Protein backbone atom coordinates (compact mmCIF):
# COMPACT_ATOMS: atom_id res chain seq x y z
CA UNK A 1 0.00 0.00 0.00
CA UNK A 2 1.32 3.42 -0.94
CA UNK A 3 1.64 5.82 1.98
CA UNK A 4 2.04 9.60 1.83
CA UNK A 5 4.19 9.59 4.97
CA UNK A 6 5.98 6.89 7.00
CA UNK A 7 6.93 7.12 10.67
CA UNK A 8 9.16 4.80 12.66
CA UNK A 9 7.96 4.17 16.21
CA UNK A 10 9.91 0.95 16.64
CA UNK A 11 11.39 0.48 20.10
CA UNK A 12 9.02 3.00 21.66
CA UNK A 13 6.63 2.06 24.46
CA UNK A 14 3.10 3.31 24.92
CA UNK A 15 2.05 6.09 24.58
CA UNK A 16 4.86 7.26 22.28
CA UNK A 17 3.68 5.46 19.10
CA UNK A 18 0.32 7.25 19.47
CA UNK A 19 2.00 10.60 20.18
CA UNK A 20 4.20 10.27 17.06
CA UNK A 21 1.24 9.11 14.98
CA UNK A 22 -0.93 12.05 16.05
CA UNK A 23 1.85 14.54 15.30
CA UNK A 24 2.46 13.04 11.84
CA UNK A 25 -1.28 12.86 11.12
CA UNK A 26 -1.61 16.58 11.88
CA UNK A 27 0.80 17.25 8.98
CA UNK A 28 -1.28 15.31 6.43
CA UNK A 29 -4.27 16.42 4.43
CA UNK A 30 -7.64 14.70 4.45
CA UNK A 31 -7.55 11.38 2.58
CA UNK A 32 -3.79 10.98 2.79
CA UNK A 33 -2.32 7.77 4.22
CA UNK A 34 0.14 7.43 7.08
CA UNK A 35 2.24 4.26 7.48
CA UNK A 36 3.33 3.52 11.05
CA UNK A 37 5.99 0.98 12.08
CA UNK A 38 5.95 -0.11 15.74
CA UNK A 39 7.23 -2.94 17.91
CA UNK A 40 5.06 -2.35 20.99
CA UNK A 41 2.44 -5.14 20.91
CA UNK A 42 -0.06 -2.80 22.58
CA UNK A 43 0.13 -0.50 19.57
CA UNK A 44 -2.28 -2.72 17.63
CA UNK A 45 -5.21 -2.03 19.98
CA UNK A 46 -4.07 1.50 20.80
CA UNK A 47 -3.77 2.68 17.19
CA UNK A 48 -7.05 1.04 16.15
CA UNK A 49 -8.91 2.74 19.03
CA UNK A 50 -7.15 6.07 18.47
CA UNK A 51 -7.90 6.08 14.73
CA UNK A 52 -11.58 5.37 15.33
CA UNK A 53 -11.96 7.99 18.08
CA UNK A 54 -10.09 10.59 15.99
CA UNK A 55 -12.18 10.13 12.85
CA UNK A 56 -9.47 8.34 10.85
CA UNK A 57 -9.65 4.93 9.18
CA UNK A 58 -7.29 2.06 9.94
CA UNK A 59 -6.99 0.58 6.45
CA UNK A 60 -4.68 -2.33 7.24
CA UNK A 61 -2.32 -3.70 9.85
CA UNK A 62 0.10 -6.59 9.60
CA UNK A 63 3.28 -7.95 11.10
CA UNK A 64 6.42 -7.96 8.94
CA UNK A 65 9.97 -8.76 10.01
CA UNK A 66 9.11 -8.51 13.71
CA UNK A 67 7.49 -5.09 13.34
CA UNK A 68 3.84 -4.12 13.30
CA UNK A 69 2.86 -1.99 10.32
CA UNK A 70 -0.28 0.12 10.12
CA UNK A 71 -1.84 2.16 7.34
CA UNK A 72 -4.15 4.90 8.55
CA UNK A 73 -6.18 7.14 6.26
CA UNK A 74 -6.75 10.65 7.55
CA UNK A 75 -10.44 11.50 8.00
From TrEMBL:
It comes from the Bacteria. Gene3D superfamilies: TusA-like domain (3.30.110.40). It holds the Pfam family TusA. PANTHER family: SULFUR CARRIER PROTEIN YEDF-RELATED. This is TusA-related sulfurtransferase. Residues 7-31 form the UPF0033 domain. Belongs to the sulfur carrier protein TusA family.
Amino acid sequence: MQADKVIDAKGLACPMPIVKTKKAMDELGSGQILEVHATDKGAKNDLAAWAKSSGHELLEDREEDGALKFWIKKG
